[in-house]
Prior knowledge:
By secondary structure, the chain is mainly beta. It starts with a strand and ends with a strand. The chain is globular, with a radius of gyration of 12 Å. It is built from 1 helix and 7 strands; from the N terminus they run E-E-E-E-H-E-E-E.
Amino acid sequence: xxxxxxxxxxxxxxxxxxxxxxxxxxxxxxxxxxxxxxxxxxxxxxxxxxxxxxxxxxxxxxxxxxxxxxxxxxxxxxxxxxxxxxxxxxxxxxxxxxxxxx
Length: 102
């Protein structure tokens, strides 16, 4: 399985969680039927605005969708965090696969 780093994690103005990988693109991620999509303009995997699931759970779903496409995404020390939706806190875990978003 290939690996890639996450360059940016963002919650946009519409409340969607975006994960930007450094090198990979995922134009066919919709085929995984996991409600994760690829935004070619932002070069990001993104979730819908949370309804029943939390942002943390959607982040896990994005990682799982990337794995289903053959790529493991991991945080880097240089990963940027953008919060345009007024979410109070985004906290990464050093496990490189967990994030708490409140």
